[in-house]
Amino acid sequence: MIVSSAKSDIIDGVASTVTYDWTSIHKTLDTYGNAVLPALLSADTCRSLAALYAAEAGFRSRVVMARHGFGMGEYKYWAYPLPPAVQALRTALYPRLAPLANQWARRLGEEVRYPDRHADFLAMCHEAGQARPTPLLLRYGPGDYNCLHQDLYGERVFPLQVAVLLSEPERDFTGGEFVITEQRPRQQSRAEVVPLRQGDAVVFAVHHRPVSGSRGSYRVTSRHGVSRVRSGQRHTLGIIFHDAL
Ligand SMILES: O=C(O)CCC(=O)C(=O)O
Ligand SMILES: [Fe+2]
């Protein structure tokens, strides 16, 4: 059941990465540091993926956030091979974002260049000893939240990541907003709450991004998290493009 619905949605998911207006998404990412991809996954795929949380098999580890001071709630990292829908999304989204990642690197004066294909970027991660998969499934219940953080897992970092909301706000849960803060040099932080519906994804800066100033680009530091879930259950799919040590 899950396999067949995931399969039809792989096609959905990959097709929809083609139909987004990536020029406009890049512009939004340049201006605000985050952008929404509406309806990246169908409600069926969201339900199938969220249901996988209960499974033992398919994951490499489970993290109870309170044990590490990360917040409340928990998440699980998938093992390789990733579920087909997750693998397909990670592979399809990367080449859409790599050109912007390269522009950001150039503007920040960084030497790193991101290859066109995700497989080639993963090879760079693996050479640096980062070989463990990072896509994850998160689960929050009443009172749970995710502290502001950055998903860094070694020296190799792809500067953009994606989170897909698998639950429907107001129906499945209340509260639990996706929050991003940006800290500009010598200025106070700016916060954004990203409005998402079930199946929507947010693309956002992992750790920093360039912002144009009067004397060229400067670097802002970004962090993301989730505000307290007030009621119900909230699931998210996290797609991080670098692998972990
Ligand atoms: O649950 C969320 O919306 C945030 C998930 C997250 O931190 C991530 O995908 O890296
Ligand atoms: Fe995260």
UniProtKB/TrEMBL annotation:
Any one GO MF annotation of this record: metal ion binding
Keywords in alphabetical order: Iron, Metal-binding, Oxidoreductase
Ranges of residues in domain Fe2OG dioxygenase: 131-244
Family: Belongs to the iron/ascorbate-dependent oxidoreductase family.
Protein name per Swiss-Prot or TrEMBL: Fe2OG dioxygenase domain-containing protein
Organism: Nitrospirillum amazonense
Lineage, broadest ranks: Bacteria, Pseudomonadati, Pseudomonadota, Alphaproteobacteria, Rhodospirillales
